Amino acid sequence: MTAELIDLTPYGGVEANAEWRDEVRALAKKRDAVLLAHNYQLPEIQDIADFTGDSLALSRIAAQSPASTIVFCGVHFMAETAKILSPEKTVLIPDERAGCSLADSITGAQLRAWKAEHPGAVVVSYVNTTAEVKAETDICCTSSNAVDVVASIPADREVLFLPDQFLGAHVKRETGRENMHIWAGECHVHAGINGPELAERAAANPDADLFIHPECGCATSALYLAGEGIVASDRVKILSTGDMVTQARATKAKSVLVATEIGMLHQLRKAAPGIEFNAVNDRASCRYMKMITPAALLRSLREGRDEVHVDAETARRARGAVQRMIEIGKPGGGE
Ligand code: 13P
Ligand code: SF4
């Protein structure tokens, strides 16, 4: 899917007012649907959802929810992951064109060729991948449990980590693992949040905490700033979007610079209204996440669209890797 070809206002003209909220809630009830929203969604979508969270939390909720329909306000691979975990449920995404540049950075055929070069290696795929890639994977991970997932693999086994190079570099640093090969993919939004920009913002806000998503191009620079004493090391936190909310509640800082997609600011400001949150790069908006408009959500609930299907054999082959992902890093779960 090429970003430039996408109409950014697919279902405009609906205001997220009280009437809209009432209709969305009534239709969700009628369909026995649970509404899930990722932290990068538009604020009005986050606020109407039953649950808002990071990729791992939403996958776990999707797997456990008693609702017969899941409406996934996020991007396509997230809805696909829910379908893989719960094939008997109806999974809807309000706009099926909501893709992901990171998931597009490796195909099933490319992964098969990479595996052939490293026979016996354990394949760890970030959840931001297609179902076809997950079907070729041993364990999936998200940003909140990637370190735990790689640490759970015996030290003598080679690891193929894909597709995000910045998350891969973070995991390699944290685990100290040398036998880990990293695919050179990236998310166009996070790769654009760069080191010089972070250094400049950090210098102008010397007392601010830095919350950095590990997919960011600036993650290594953040650790360099800490290592050089330019920023106090306890102020630099590499976090998944869900862990940013937890950290926002815990920090004593008065201001925080946030390096991730700007939809995140809404949950952070709700979690800690007394703290000033600013984006490191306020142009870091994911056009795919923003395709889930109030109008698209209403259409989805009215018309039962867009239904997400994953071919049964692909889902069967992908399920074990996704189930291992939701178990690892869970309180009382593996690792
Ligand atoms: P998390 O919410 O798991 O941190 O993932 C961020 C992301 O880029 C999802 O597309
Ligand atoms: Fe994909 Fe990046 Fe958008 Fe997340 S922010 S959905 S990784 S393109």
Could you explain the architecture of this structure?
The protein is α/β, with parallel strands linked by helices and 335 residues long. It folds into three domains: 9-100 and 288-309, 3-Layer(aba) Sandwich (Rossmann fold), CATH 3.40.50.10800; 103-186 and 316-328, NadA-like (Rossmann fold, 3-Layer(aba) Sandwich); 193-279, 3-Layer(aba) Sandwich (Rossmann fold), CATH 3.40.50.10800. The chain has helices spanning 18-30, 43-48, 55-64, 76-85, 108-117, 131-134, 146-151, 165-175, 188-191, 195-204, 219-227, 241-250, 264-271, 294-303, 312-327, and strands at 33-38, 51-53, 69-73, 90-92, 122-126, 139-141, 159-162, 180-182, 209-212, 236-238, 255-259, 276-279. A four-stranded parallel sheet has the order 2-1-3-4, with helices on both faces. A four-stranded parallel sheet has the order 6-5-7-8. Strands 10-9-11-12 form a four-stranded parallel sheet, sandwiched between helices. α6 links the parallel β5 (122-126) and β6. It is globular. The two termini are 36 Å apart. Residues 1-9 have low confidence and may be disordered.
Integer average pLDDT: 93
Taken in chain order, the helices and strands follow as HEHEHEHEHEHEHEHEHHEHEHEHEHH
Largest sheet: 4 strands, parallel
At CATH level 3, the topology of the largest domain is: Rossmann fold
| Morphology call | globular
Class of the largest domain in CATH? Alpha Beta
- The gyration radius over C-alpha positions equals 19 Å
Strand sequence of the main sheet, in spatial order? Answer: 2-1-3-4
Question: Given the helix and strand composition, which structural class is it?
Answer: alpha/beta
Q: Termini, distance in Å?
A: 36 Å
Named once each, the bound ligands are:
1,3-dihydroxyacetonephosphate, iron/sulfur cluster
